[in-house]
């Protein structure tokens, strides 16, 4: 018997997708010599849970459909997952390589060495590296299953320990390590480590796996700890905002440097991500969701994957038009751009099934 569809998880996909678009639109706001810090904090800081949250959601889906209690066929699992991610990854990578080459009138990216480097590290567009990390998580599934089974014996000990170890690793990777190698291959491997080193997101991935394995227990715990969850969310949100404004006030960072410092891999960013996952699960699993909100969030969740893949096209077009018309992008323009990009990406996703394309094209575009 197949397990029930969990609306809250689908809602989270949609919300996270809105957050990812916010991060990318926020980078435009940061180009302003005097950016609106309130808008930047919304687009670039409060959305920071979005990227690691997708690893939580991916792990949840993997372990919810392939629980530890059932037989596991690695070849069948991998074939299905690679179809969902690898084929769209390669398709959209080449699309963005063509897109960038056309805009820059430079085809050097199609030199064999550059193609390999671009695909290996996910460099075709600023957002697509996520799929590289996800593919590594998929390929290494035989490690995660026994690891979760082992951690399951004492989760209240192993998960806090993994969080601390992961936070220390991320701290050193983000702020301390600065190695230089004579080999360009080794230097690229170090420079692009955030694009493929899965340990950066190991805790949140395993937390998603644990939540899937014990979803009813987690839901029951959340239903009895609503006050704690809400307070934790308030404190973690205040913490990440204070970190953002604090590094600007006390370390004299500009807004761009502050955003690069207070990101999802920072200690406050990791805590904020975990808190937000629990907060959203509480409000969407343990509290009633209005029907109109359900419809909107469910639609966003259903369209989240193609929205993720295509939205940089519309963002690039709008910023290009603004540059051509010499429009100085103030806060209102940034908000309008966000809305238009989101609506265009939703429209693309909604129209895609109505085009009646051959099945192989659907596989290339969105994996199914």
Automatic annotation (TrEMBL):
One of its GO terms (molecular function) is O-acetyltransferase activity. Its main location: membrane. The keyword Acyltransferase applies. Keywords: Acyltransferase, Cell membrane, Membrane, Transferase, Transmembrane, Transmembrane helix. It is a multi-pass membrane protein. The keyword Signal does not apply. GO terms for cellular component: plasma membrane. The chain crosses the membrane at residues 12-30, 42-64, 85-103, 123-144, 156-177, 197-215, 227-245, 265-284, 305-325, 331-352. Residues 7-348 form the Acyltransferase domain. It is found in: Cell membrane. It holds the Pfam family Acyl_transf_3. GO terms for biological process: enterobacterial common antigen biosynthetic process. Belongs to the acyltransferase 3 family. This is Membrane-bound acyltransferase YfiQ, involved in biofilm formation.
